[in-house]
Amino acid sequence: MAYTVPKLTDYSKESLDKAVRELVRAFEREAEAVSSEADWKNFRDRWMARKNGVLTLVNDLWLKAAPKADKRDVGQWVNELKTLVEEKVDRALERAKTQASWPKLSSDRLDITLPGIRRPLGVEHPVIKTWNEMVDIFCNLGYSVEEGPEIETDYYNFEALNFPPNHPARDMQDTLFVAGQDAKPLRERLLLRTHTSPVQIHTMEKLKPPLRIVIPGKVYRRDAFDASHSPMFHQIEGLAVDTNITFGDLKGTLDHAMKMMFGSSVKTHFRPSFFPFTEPSAEMLVSCFICGGSGKRCSDPCRTCKTTGWIEILGCGMVDPNVFEFVKHNGYDPAKVSGFAFGMGLDRVAMLLYEFPDLRLLLDGDERFLSQFAREA
Ligand code: PHE
Q1: What is the mean pLDDT of residues 115-120?
Q2: 297, β-bridge pairs
């Protein structure tokens, strides 16, 4: 509500103070709002016009009406108010003029002396960094990148990868199933993919051989969250299919990739393993790149490789002919083509590379941890 000069009913110090404070507050509020010369003229008249200007009213209602004994005090106040108003009215005009010459901003105010807005550069998350490095290594070998859905059917996650229904290897996967699927035939039931291997099938359905692909992505397993387990983690899968692909190709390719990733002095070691979709299957180990394979760090035991000198890094093998049977119609005749595949956990590789002790750091979103992966500008 616009300010009006009140009549003073008593001239005690308190009520005089209060009246002056209210007037000054109203004056300052109105001065703030002046933003053009036209505004300023109204403002000046309202406060300084001889007839009915606020100062004139103050003079009439406060000073002239004051009892003789209070006239001196009131007079002093009224003079001070006059000075204040006159000064500020002049300043408001200057401000209104400069503001009118500014480019129109939404706030109509710009303080160019304020520091600018600093936008810190984002950095690659350590898992994404590892993911990109691994993808680059294989792209340089002529591989291309494929991706697939994180919600899969039983068919792609298991059946076409040669896990028959009720195969005990399905238990190894600790699958997270989508609820309410029981009415569907088994192969159509939905689940969260437990590995990136189903994208092998999707790709072979889509592209004819020869094929050389890597498949990075998120995978899910029913694991409790702790320092080395997470219900969601990342894998990178590889698949090469052609005529005459041998286990020697697998070893050569993976040995090269590990040297690119962990340094040219790492050695690789293969030991027999089992996966339903590869035959033969193997686990690959790399010599510990922290202790150089000695199992010791100075005189302390090496914790990274648990003193063994070796680190288990991935599962691999030659594509099982039974898997090709599922995509035979697209040129994958197991009598004619052969291939190798591998799958590796990226979160674990990141943990090894950057030597941090707890997988949960990757998901906490703590800026103090993540900013350490910033490259120097
Ligand atoms: N899919 C397997 C896993 O998640 C890894 C793997 C991929 C093994 C390809 C062999 C070939 O454990």
Answers
A1: 83
A2: 300
Residues whose CB is less than 8 angstroms from the CB of residue 165 and which lie 6 or more positions away in sequence, other chains included: 159, 186
pLDDT digits (tens, 9 = 90+) for 224-276: 899 989 999 999 999 999 999 999 999 999 999 999 999 999 999 999 999 99
Q: Ligand 1 — pocket residues by CB below 6 A? A: 195, 197, 237, 275, 278, 315-317, 341-343
Dihedral sign computed on CA atoms, order 14, 18, 19, 24: positive
Residue ranges of alpha helices (H) inside 263-360 are 321-326, 346-354
Per-residue pLDDT reduced to its tens digit, 28-57: 888 888 888 888 889 999 999 999 899 999
Cβ contacts of residue 359 below 8 Å, gap of 6+?
226, 227, 228, 229, 230, 233, 347, 348, 351
* Probe residue for ligand 1, chosen from 152, 172, 197, 223 as the CB with the greatest number of ligand atoms within 8 Å: 197
Cβ contact 164:208 at 8 Å:
no
The C-alpha atoms of residue 356 and residue 128 are separated, in whole angstroms, by 16
With vertex at residue 275, the alpha carbon angle to CA 270 and CA 281, rounded to the nearest 5 degrees, is 30
Q: Whose CA is nearest to atom 7 of ligand 1?
A: 343
Which atom of ligand 1 is found nearest the CA of 314? 5
Distance 339 CA to ligand 1 centre (A): 14
Q: How far is the CA of 341 from the centre of ligand 1 (A)?
A: 8
